[in-house]
Design goal:
The chain is of the alpha/beta class. It contains 10 helices and 14 strands.
């Protein structure tokens, strides 16, 4: 295999020019975040909530080239709420493995509405995932979700959210230690350069191992601007060696995907981050978003990473997880 993503430095102009001219930017891993922990059918009726809906959409994403799934499981008795027990995560992880034999499974530890406690957020680590997200900074949110039937989060009214989810040094240390003990690769999610302070603390303590998987979250409230300049800045400030993936929230998604493709890093798409195909048009499913990523990448000469290549990039076992 060519030089891995973890060794490629997209901030080096000389290296970038040489690799583009030779047509050998690293293979690009596509992550699809199919369902978030907050919004659902009240913002887009095509949003998958049940396990069956999630897996059905994911099968199409996998066929198109999506390599990793970032997963928020919803409760089977009330799909407006995020699941908070390991058994349900394990059940859905097993369904995904059957439908998508080699896909890398990445469970959230960010939780969601109905799974805000530490115990609920860590339940997903007990389901034998290969990767889990690890938030390394506070998340500021303010928006309104329209009421729906069945009632949204048990409320028959509009749901107004205005909050900041705290993240502490101790919390990141605990989550990273649990992942290390269970052989789970942390996907370290970064909203701004200050979050790297917590990341470097984890590195200094030996709680995360290289290559570091860094997810750049662009355009989220209280975080970095969704601009190419800010993506470059975040990469320049990051630890080495790192494998980077970038996402854009809402209508910034396509521009951030195009930025990632251009730079030679990896990308994330999906309805957790964006429910629109374009301004004024709801996307029909997650596969439509993945299809666009693949189309842009191919037009720009980026190879789509196979699951085997992605596992090599991340230092994961070549054998997919079992359930």
């Amino acid at each position: 295999m060519e030089q891995t993503q973890g060794l490629f430095d997209p901030t080096s102009q000389e290296e970038w020019v040489k690799r583009v001219a030779a047509g050998n930017l690293p293979p690009m891993m596509i992550t699809v975040a199919i369902t978030g922990g907050v919004q659902g059918k009240e913002v887009n009726p095509n949003h998958p909530e049940s396990a069956e809906e999630q897996v059905e959409q994911l099968k199409e994403c996998y066929k198109l080239g999506a390599t990793m799934v970032h997963l928020h499981v919803r409760r089977p008795d009330n799909p407006t709420l995020t699941a908070s027990d390991a058994a349900e995560y394990r059940r859905v992880n097993g369904m995904i493995r059957e439908a998508c034999p080699e896909m890398i499974i990445n469970n959230t530890t960010g939780g969601g509405i109905g799974a805000e406690t530490e115990e609920a957020r860590l339940a997903s680590t007990d389901a034998n995932p290969e990767v889990c997200s690890l938030d390394c900074g506070p998340i500021v949110s303010r928006f309104t979700l329209k009421k729906r039937k069945p009632p949204l989060f048990g409320r028959d009214e509009d749901y107004h959210l205005d909050t900041c989810a705290p993240v502490t040094y101790g919390e990141t240390e605990k989550y990273a230690r649990i992942m290390l003990e269970k052989g789970i690769k942390p996907e370290i999610e970064i909203w701004t350069t200050g979050h790297y302070t917590l990341v470097r603390n984890l590195i200094d303590q030996g709680l995360v191992k290289p290559p570091y998987l860094i997810g750049l979250v662009m355009g989220f409230g209280g975080g970095a601007y969704a601009t190419p300049k800010e993506v470059m800045h975040l990469i320049e400030c990051g630890p080495k060696p790192s494998v980077y993936s970038v996402l854009g929230v809402g209508l910034f998604q396509t521009q951030m995907v195009a930025t990632g493709i251009t730079l030679g890093i990896n990308v994330r798409t999906g309805m957790e981050d964006n429910v629109l195909y374009k301004k004024g048009e709801l996307c029909r499913d997650n596969a439509q978003l993945v299809e666009r990523v693949v189309k842009i990448a191919r037009e720009m000469g980026r190879e789509i990473a196979t699951p085997k290549q992605a596992r090599q990039m991340l230092g994961l076992s070549e054998k997919p997880s079992t359930y």
